[in-house]
Amino acid sequence: MQPAYQPTESVGITCLLNQSIQVERKHITFQLAENSRGRFLRITEAVAGRRNAIIIPLSGIQEFRDAINKLIDSSKLSVTSVRPLPSVPRQPT
Predict the structure, then answer these.
(1) Which 3 state secondary structure label does DSSP give 31?
(2) Contact yes or no for 39/60 (Cβ under 8 A)
(3) What is the DSSP letter of 29?
(4) How far is it, in rounded angstroms, from Cα 71 to Cα 83?
(5) Nearest to residue 32, comparing CAs of 48, 46, 20?
(6) Could you list the pLDDT tens digit for every one of the 93 residues in the chain?
(7) What is this structure's pTM?
(8) N or C: at which end does the chain have fewer Cβ atoms within 10 angstroms?
(9) Domains in the chain, start-ordered, CATH in brackets?
């Protein structure tokens, strides 16, 4: 993760902190920002020219972190390997 302090403003939003990571083909950006309604965390996924984002109000960020930590802990316990699905021949249309 590469931190980048960029106090920028756009459309009433002030960016307080950006951090980005690259996971496979996805570029994920975590942005701590604020606007007139308060502070929030915006998580943006960019892949193949498309973007998706979720916004978490700062009031819910600890609950979000706890949920992520539970998922991480559970994934460590799961030792089963993931196998690719078998290919299925396409039916002619």
Answers:
(1) strand
(2) no
(3) E
(4) 20
(5) 20
(6) 444 544 455 678 999 999 999 999 999 999 999 999 999 999 999 988 899 999 999 999 999 999 999 999 988 876 555 566 676 666 665
(7) 0.68
(8) C
(9) 2-66 (3.10.450.700)
